[in-house]
Amino acid sequence: MVHVTTNLITSILLGNDWINSNHVHLFGDQNQLTIPDQHGQLNFIPYVEPTCTNYPALLVHQITIPPYSQLLIDITCSVNDANDFIFEPYEHHIPKSIFIPHTLLNINKHHATKHLRAKCYSDQIRKHILESTKHIDNEKHRLAIQDILWRNKILFDPTPSIINIPSQSAIRTGDHPPIYSKQYSASYTYQDMKFQETKKLLERGQIEESTSPWSPPIVLVKKKDKTMRFCIDYRCLNAITIKDAFPLPRLDEIFEQLSDAVYYTKFDFKSGYFQVPLSKEDRITNGLATFQRIINHILGPARWKYALAYIDDVIIYSKTFEEHLIHLNDICTMLKNARFRLNPEKCEIAQTQTDYLGHNVKNGEIRPSSNNINGLLNTRLPQRADEACKFVKAAEYYRKFIPNFSQTAEPARKFVPTTRTQQKKGQKTIITLTDDELKAFNQLKQFLTTDMVLRLPNNRFPFKVQTDASDEGIGAVLLQIYSEGDRSIAYLSKKFTQAQRKWSPMEQECYAFICSLDKWHNCLSGIKFEWETDHKALTQLKQKAKINKRCERWRLKILEYDFKVKHIPAHVTFFRVVTRL
């Protein structure tokens, strides 16, 4: 029988039974052993002395190390004095997540002290990691995610940080003189909050003392959690600033990338703008464009493949859990190397559905975020023009979910100002809703109460466009053909101008298709699709030799697309029956 041990901390002599049975003698002072041969003659065999001697370090007292903390402990070793004594952790401690420093020690009268350079993190980080992964039922998957988060735990460190990317921010005001604004009056409580927050930012190195002639006022804004956000009112400065034209990504392009995704991770930065260094010449910035440029630079080739960012909202998406582990580790490493810090309370890890940019995404389907919809449904009847305007604009954000939105909302659109002067003039105007305006308000609310679900576009399935026109305007729906039936991707509606009301029915119907091509060009360009219309004359649009001048101009654009026209009865068009899938 053979016994194998893996936990030895010092060298031992093996083969004691063989030594005794063969009359072997060891001479440690001579570094040799003797062994008799078959004739009884002794053979002297030298053995090589090790180049270094290992001395086990043993605990003086039994100790318990609390989780995620460091502790200075007493050990004993059979060395009194030594220079350049190498101390290294026992290799079998490595898989136990016990960190011991590798170091070169000078032992003097049995004493030497060494601390870990690595930082130990608070128990709060442990709670955040466990809380953000508790929804994962598969234990193997949960531990794999936790392992990635622990290796990148510095991302959740509450200590403020400045990213290590050179400043790309600058502000240009031309030859405009500096603007000085007085501080807004505030209560003693708010004054103390401003002072304390300014003191914190100064101690963290996120701001510095200045004698600049520029001086904007401080504003405290209440957050959703009732705490206060420390802000600076830069409106006067923004008005004279040459804007940074760096583009933000389009929302529809972002959501199109999520069509095949099953797992999602969402990151939110901890006071993201405070982590961005500003140029020494300006110390202020075109915030949105600068932050977007930095995030794009950090994500690099991962962007549009498995990670997207809209300003400071980062989402990681994957088809399988195994892929998600790789993608999550890559993005965490990128952010860690850039020294970004995350807000763990707002991060979502390895979810099968997520709310992103006001929408809920799950298994290739998209719907409005329930929190936003509940806010709209709980809105009271508007009593001022600005209240009506806010409701219409908020509902318009989800117009692609609502068939014939333009016609439905038209009576209430009178409250939406088209110029800055109108906005200032009618902001506090008291209003009384007419019957048509009240009907529009209630109809929009009714639409919002339905389960508004759309499919995200997927190039593996064929597309279909249905269009229609009425005396008031046009409507269209983009569909995809699945085995279980047609699934709606997006709705489009537009109200006619007075001139367009005078067009012929053929022109109005053709105009609906033109608007569809403009709106959904990204989905329809370069592929073959169907166009369904209830106007039979348009089925001959490609073959007809001569039509009126307006349709003739449109035909040149239409023929750039590869499509087949199909006539369907008016009563079966998708948006007329308002079918919700």
Explain the overall architecture:
The protein has helices at residues 16-21, 123-133, 139-151, 188-204, 235-240, 251-256, 287-299, 321-337, 370-377, 385-396, 405-409, 420-425, 435-449, 505-519, 521-524, 549-558; strands at residues 25-27, 32-36, 42-46, 58-59, 75-76, 82-87, 103-107, 218-222, 228-232, 263-268, 307-310, 313-318, 348-351, 353-356, 359-362, 365-368, 454-455, 463-469, 473-482, 485-495, 528-533, 562-567. 28% of the residues lie in helices and 19% in strands. It has 16 helices and 22 strands. Helix 2 runs antiparallel to helix 3 (139-151). It is elongated and about 125 Å long. The two termini are 70 Å apart. Strands 20-19-18-21-22 form a 5-stranded mixed sheet. By secondary structure, it is of the alpha+beta class. The longest helix is centred in the middle third of the chain and has 17 residues, at 188-204. The chain folds into 5 domains: 1-120, no CATH class; 125-163 and 244-363, Alpha-Beta Plaits (2-Layer Sandwich); 188-240, HIV Type 1 Reverse Transcriptase, subunit A, domain 1 (HIV Type 1 Reverse Transcriptase, Chain A, domain 1, Roll); 370-449, no CATH class; 454-572, Nucleotidyltransferase, domain 5, CATH 3.30.420.
Give a short synopsis of this structure:
The protein has helices at 16-21, 123-133, 139-151, 188-204, 235-240, 251-256, 287-299, 321-337, 370-377, 385-396, 405-409, 420-425, 435-449, 505-519, 521-524, 549-558, and strands at residues 25-27, 32-36, 42-46, 58-59, 75-76, 82-87, 103-107, 218-222, 228-232, 263-268, 307-310, 313-318, 348-351, 353-356, 359-362, 365-368, 454-455, 463-469, 473-482, 485-495, 528-533, 562-567. It is α+β, with helices and mostly antiparallel strands and 581 residues long. The protein folds into 5 domains: 1-120, no CATH class; 125-163 and 244-363, Alpha-Beta Plaits, CATH 3.30.70; 188-240, Roll (HIV Type 1 Reverse Transcriptase, Chain A, domain 1); 370-449, no CATH class; 454-572, 2-Layer Sandwich (Nucleotidyltransferase, domain 5).
